[in-house]
Amino acid sequence: MWMDNAGGNVIVNLAMDFWREGKNREQLRMNSSELDTKISRGIFNENNSGFWHSSLIDHHLIDHFIPFLPLELKHVLQCVLAEMEHLEIPKNDDLADKVARDMPFFPVEERIFAVKGCKSVRQKLVVHADE
Question: Is the pTM of this model over 0.85?
Answer without folding.
Answer: no
